[in-house]
Amino acid sequence: MKTMKTRNLTGIFIIICTFIFSHAAAQTVTRTQHRAAIAKDAVTTGTMTIRKPEYISIMTNQDKEQLIMDGTKFTMTLGGKKHTTDSRKNAQFATFHSVLTAVINDQPIPQNEELSVTNKGNRTTITITPKGKKKRQLFSSFVLTINAKTKAFCTLRMNGRGEEYVEYDFK
To answer: Are strands 42-51 and 24-34 parallel, antiparallel or unpaired?
Structure first.
């Protein structure tokens, strides 16, 4: 009787693990942070994990630098400082959230006045320029490039004030 229960539990565990790993995709990522006042860019490596329907985790610099989208909640840790926001309350991230969710779930990119989509060869570039109050925004724009055929992320660039940016290159 115990072996039957053990087999059932083992079978359920295998099914759950198969489901989790079949719905998760991992890519290697290189993160470049450019600051105008510093001559050399900070470059670190790490991984990106995607789980459908709305989870992306980018961890670099031995998990010290993080960018996480979990549903509508965004958490970013840069330079030891943690920033959190919710796209339902932060207009700057609302369009960013809808684009990332569409890409993850292989859906059409939603259209609105804050974004432009260009196609060149196998690449689709989505540029998001949030409207509204510029003074308090963490980023002035987001530029996401994806492989048009595979829907894999190629680059994500988050432009800050002036010439500063954080760019993620995915392999």
So the answer is: antiparallel
